[in-house]
Automatic annotation (TrEMBL):
Residues annotated for heme binding in this entry: 403
Species, as recorded: Monodelphis domestica (Gray short-tailed opossum)
InterPro entries cross-referenced by the UniProt entry: Cyt_P450 (IPR001128), Cyt_P450_CS (IPR017972), Cyt_P450_E_grp-I (IPR002401), Cyt_P450_E_grp-I_CYP2A-like (IPR008067), Cyt_P450_sf (IPR036396), Cytochrome_P450_fam2 (IPR050182)
Pfam families the UniProt entry points to: p450 (PF00067)
Cofactor: heme
GO terms assigned for molecular function: heme binding; iron ion binding; oxidoreductase activity, acting on paired donors, with incorporation or reduction of molecular oxygen, reduced flavin or flavoprotein as one donor, and incorporation of one atom of oxygen
Name of the molecule in the record: Cytochrome P450
Database matches in CDD domains: CYP2 (cd11026)
Chain's role: Cytochromes P450 are a group of heme-thiolate monooxygenases.
Family that this chain belongs to: Belongs to the cytochrome P450 family.
Membrane topology qualifier: Peripheral membrane protein
EC number, UniProt record: 1.14.14.1
Record keywords: Endoplasmic reticulum, Heme, Iron, Membrane, Metal-binding, Microsome, Monooxygenase, Oxidoreductase
Top class in the EC scheme: oxidoreductase
Length: 458
């Protein structure tokens, strides 16, 4: 098998190691599949939508294992559905079913998001157009959507504990996307013995697990078997039902770590996309104005946007697609692992081989996107101005490990973007030429630059 060493510093601010452009150059040299060695660890890398689909869809079971992430092993300790162990499929399947029961893919979740969007409008109105860092407010609205499903409640934006947890989420995602964490994942056996940011991640994770445990205890005290209120209630009922079953996967530790996965992922991914998206709209005000024109034509000003409006708003939908493509939230996805010895496109992969699915290579593939490194909503519009599907658009990945909250995230992005732009015009703290849309950092995740904007009532 061809091997490539992919250390490279990027002129756009990305770090060496896991991320582009080094691995993009490997693809140019070696093709859609190759091996990289990061420190002492070997990874098989798959690029390009055709190869990704062949692995994750056509060979879904073989590539369904969760690859090795040292920090996740330390946090989850083989519990919950995030990592690979005997019970992850059961927990993932039940999580998806329960999320559906409490709104995912149903009108009830749309109503919850619409209600949260109106709370957001009221909060932004209080700013009276003053320049603010939108990080916390975007985290608040996305967190409250998942909290309503998981905990059965939403939190005030002024709630001290809520604010503390959201600030911790930001800190964790920043650490996970840092150069330090890339080094840590390459030499975990050594670095985990030394002081470093990984211990801060573990401390924060424990704090949030304690918070989740307290919520579970409250649910246990008030649980009505005939009327489950949320995800926690449903899981507790399964625990009770299988309490006599040997090796049941339904126990409190799995509940805590499953909720941790849902809470963090359901908050951080969509909120970061919103934050990057509004930075792009500040940089390209003509795009924001065109979205507002479409909102005024289809929705007007007298009612809130609804998900059914999306079919009549191809430009807005294309802009949201392009924000997801350009922001490239998880450039490498989350590592996979092959669950058995297998051959793939002429190469032999022993059982247990770690696999990186280079999502960024699809989202920035010049064969599918005319200007892959330029923000341009026309990437998703045909000659008639209708929304154009693109098989290289896979920000949620695909297959058995695809993002289980994709439906919620898509609904959130449409309703939050349209509700904000229906009610506000955007004001930048800097001249357009000084707005930097390059990533602040790009490792496991991609984070936008810190910026401020004002929301002026329209």
């Amino acid at each position: 098998m061809v091997s490539g060493s992919c250390w490279s510093n990027s002129a756009t601010g990305t770090s060496p190691g896991w991320t582009l452009p080094g691995w993009s150059e490997c693809r140019d040299k070696y093709g859609d599949v190759f091996t990289v060695y990061l420190g002492t660890r070997r990874y098989f890398v798959i690029c390009g939508p055709e190869s990704v689909k062949k692995a994750l869809v056509d060979n879904a079971e073989v590539f369904s294992g969760r690859g090795t992430l040292a920090i996740s092993e330390m946090v989850f300790q083989r519990y919950g559905f995030f990592v690979t162990y005997d019970g992850w499929k059961t927990l993932r399947r039940v999580s998806i079913a329960t999320l559906r029961d409490f709104g995912m893919g149903k009108r009830s979740i749309e109503e919850q998001i619409k209600a949260e969007a109106q709370c957001l409008v009221e909060e932004l109105q209080k700013s009276q157009g003053a320049l603010i860092d939108p990080t916390f407010i975007f985290h608040s609205v996305t967190a409250n959507v998942i909290c309503s499903i998981v905990f059965g409640e939403r939190f005030s934006y002024q709630d001290t504990q809520f604010r503390e947890i959201l600030n911790m989420f930001v800190e964790v995602f920043t650490i996970l996307s840092s150069l330090w964490m890339q080094f840590f994942e390459q030499f975990p056996s050594v670095l985990k013995l030394l002081p470093g940011p990984h211990y801060r991640v573990l401390k924060i994770a424990q704090h949030i697990k304690d918070f989740i445990s307290s919520k579970i205890e409250q649910h246990q005290e008030s649980l009505d078997p005939n009327s489950p209120r949320d995800f926690i209630d449903s899981f507790l009922l399964r625990i009770e039902k299988e309490k006599e079953t040997p090796d049941s996967k339904y126990h409190v530790k799995n509940l805590v770590l499953t909720v941790l996965s849902l809470f963090f992922a359901g908050t951080e991914t969509t909120s970061t996309t919103l934050r990057y998206g509004f930075l792009l709209l500040l940089k390209y005000p003509q795009v924001a104005e065109k979205v507002q024109e479409e909102i005024d034509q289809v929705v007007g000003r007298d009612r809130a946007p609804e998900i059914k409006d999306r079919a009549k708003m191809p430009y807005t939908d294309a802009v949201i697609h392009e924000i997801q493509r350009f922001s490239d939230l998880l450039p490498m996805g989350i590592p996979h692992m092959v669950t058995e010895d297998t051959s793939f496109q002429g190469y032999f992969l022993p059982k247990g081989t770690d696999v990186f699915i280079l999502l960024s290579a699809s989202l920035k593939d010049p064969c599918y996107f005319e200007k892959p490194h330029i923000f341009d909503p026309n990437h998703f519009l045909d000659a008639q101005g209708a929304l154009k599907k693109n098989e290289a658009f896979i920000p949620f990945s695909m297959g058995k490990r695809a993002c289980l909250g994709e439906g919620i995230a898509r609904t959130e992005l449409f309703l939050f973007f349209t509700t904000i732009l229906q009610n506000f015009s955007l004001v930048s703290s800097k001249p357009l030429e000084d707005l930097d849309i390059r990533p602040q950092c790009s490792g496991l995740g991609t984070l936008p630059q810190i910026y401020k904007l004002g929301f002026l009532p329209r």
